[in-house]
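Next comes the chain:
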Amino acid sequence: MDAVPALEEPLRQPLRSVLGPATAKVMAEHLGLHTVGDLLHHYPRRYEERGQLTHLADLPMDEHVTVVAQVADARLHTFASSRAPRGKGQRLEVTITDGSGRLQLVFFGNGVHKPHKDLLPGTRAMFAGKVSVFNRRLQLAHPAYELLRGDGEETVEAWAGALIPIYPATAKLESWKIGKAVQTVLPAAQDAVDPLPPALREGRGLLPLPEALLRIHRPHTKADIADARARLKWDEAFVLQVALARRRHADALLPAVPRRPGADGLLTAFDDRLPFTLTEGQQKVSREIFADLATEHPMHRLLQGEVGSGKTLVALRAMLAVVDAGGQAAMLAPTEVLAQQHHRSVTEMMGDLAEGGMLGGTEHATRVVLLTGSMGAAARRRALLDLATGEAGIVIGTHALIEDKVQFHDLGLVVVDEQHRFGVEQRDALRGKGKQPPHLLVMTATPIPRTVAMTVFGDLETSVLDQLPAGRSPIASHVVPAADKPHFLARAWERVREEVANGHQAYVVCPRIGDDIDEAAGPKKAGEKKSPEDEAEKRPPLAVLDVAGQLAKGPLQGLRVEVLHGRMHPDDKDAVMRRFAAGETDVLVATTVIEVGVNVPNATAMVIMDADRFGVSQLHQLRGRVGRGSAPGLCLLVTEMPEASAARQRLNAVASTLDGFELSRIDLEQRREGDVLGQAQSGARSSLRVLAVIEDEEVIAQARQEATAVVAADPDMEHLPGLRTALDALLDEEREQYLEKG
């Protein structure tokens, strides 16, 4: 039997565990670390310097922390309690200090004996626990601790070097226990297979991988840490970019039918009728798309643009070009509301060009059909027949398009709207309906910074629409601090009434529906004291059904108020949207079902309740529903969060700029990239540990260049076994499928 390579050895196995079975179990269950290699790639989050103490003054509430501090005093108290009625209860209070502040530690019952012996005044130690408040003072209850003696051989060995690594830990496993486990497996780092080609590593002056692993876990100087991190960032960026470059390379070899529009066909007829000229951006992006459609390999293009920049028009022109060339085009939308909205706006834009084969249809006309899960049987049969015969050149639908029954005559282009809402299998099933792979255009209204696009959608060519069409109005955005200044909220409702009095309409958006299926926060424990920020966080988010009722009886009494949410019957949703679009409703109280694609130019005001419960990009999306006509838009972000909170800073950022790319950077800096990459790469964890997508733009761009060159020279990695191994580790089966299907 072959020996298991050192880094693939499981931490926990029946006969001989690398670590204690209990430690290995916690590592697997709570940190996702299963092998020696996993543990070596669990890098320290930061480093404590010997003699430089953590600032106790900056401790975060309710978080697990690790601090290095000195015992100032320790006092043992006895008290009477229900368990120890004769005054035999014991409580040890230890005060620790680090020069910046003081912190109380408490131990109870039988847990006082060992710390009472260990934690004498003057003792230095590492302490780990969850920060809580008692009697308005910060404390750690029953913290785990590790004494720092500094003289004993064992301690010197354990904390060799001046820097103590602090690892991402859990309540069940403290940082220094992880550190000890890492020290146990560190010799195996010598066997790490280097994924970087030697020429690349030497050309860029990067450390060999075993050396980088040693230095990140046992640095002697800060320069060691910097060198190790620089090397490990390259690993992550390069391996990911090679995976994407191989995908681009493979796609470029696939056959596809070139789709070139006729000189005087459907597209020309459509363009001649447009009541406005395309923006420069729309013309440029259309040229890029048409050039791709004319090639013999499938187009893979990401079209991203600001809210309201006219992406739908660009996508429609691409679909018309394909229909012109004898093919069919399918547009996949994430919700029925959006599919119906797209169908309505496409047929309105096309007019009689959308009435192919019908009375009144013109010479070049085609048929545009809608296909959703809730359609009646007769309408559905008719739509399916039109697709199978080729009568319908364009179909717009939800994932109902993917079902086996749906057959196309000749599918030439798939347009996916709001890419991030579709699973890999769904897109793959639709692409599989073409006789040859169809061209693919992915649209997103969430602007993505260039590096994220390169990292997440690195297999797609990217087109950006960053100009707004003429006639779009500016949107003024303001934060309404409802808790600090209740009269601001009253004024917000007055502004809504003023907009309606001027003949306009308004949206009110809430995070929840309110039919009790989706209650958010759990019950409050008896006697719990909450900070104002906690109170705002812990109460259930405001709900559409409650808010609509309160507004109709209160500040918006006399106005026509309707509700819209995702659990309504599709026909009811459509009827509500039609009434709102027709101006028969003054105020629409809705969940985020209106987030994308809903287009009512007469709606000029939006009030977002509990705005702090939404992400930055989502707020930007929602805001894009107003100001779509000639009258200026107004967006009011209502929150109960205190002024100093991070949530308020986020809302201030949204209010201060209409630049979606700027906002997406802010959003990304505040979240971990894992949220972005994890979801986009595999629906699972992110593979990024040291690479920060925004900070490391330079590395990502350089890695992409290097990866493209490496793949062009050796697509199967025959001469780069180390890189092949790293790719296999990155692309477990699920990820491999993701990249295969895209």
Summary: Residues 167 and 178 are 7 Å apart (CA to CA). Residues 222-253 form the longest helix (32 residues). The first strand starts at residue 46 and ends at 49.
